[in-house]
Amino acid sequence: MARPIRETPILFGEDARRFIARMQERHPETPEARAQRLRDYEFFLKAFERGMREKRAREAANGGKDPWFDNI
User: Fold this and answer.
1) Distance between CA 29 and CA 32 in Å, rounded?
2) Alpha carbons 60 and 15: distance in angstroms, whole number
3) What is the pLDDT of residue 60?
4) Which of 2-6, 20-24, 68-72 has the lowest mean pLDDT?
5) How many angstroms separate the Cα of 45 from the Cα of each of 5, 40, 42, 50, 56?
6) Helical spans, DSSP H, in 2-30
7) pLDDT on residue 25
8) Where is 39: in which H helix or E strand?
9) CA-CA distance, 72 to 70, in Å (whole number)?
């Protein structure tokens, strides 16, 4: 059985100042990292669209019901 999630601690003093300073720092993305992220996104999008096309084809072949999801 899962344990309950602890509350997020509240920061005070120097810890809070460090946290705010760290959150305000900018970490620019390199052109190579951006290109890789966009390639990954396009790959995922194509896989998703292919899966949805297959799902729609199964539904069309089975009168509007997808047999892959009968047990859900």
Assistant:
1) 8
2) 58
3) 86
4) 68-72
5) 33, 9, 5, 9, 16
6) 13-24
7) 95
8) helix 31-61
9) 6
List of long-range contacts for 5-13, beta carbons under 8 Å, 24+ apart:
none
Q: Please calculate the CA angle 51-53-59 and round it to the nearest 5 degrees.
A: 105
Measure the N-to-C terminal CA separation of the chain; round to a whole number of Å. 23
pLDDT in tens, 12-66: 999 999 999 999 999 999 999 999 999 999 999 999 999 889 888 888 888 877 7
CA angle 67, 70, 72 (to 5 degrees): 140
Q: What is the pLDDT of residue 50?
A: 95
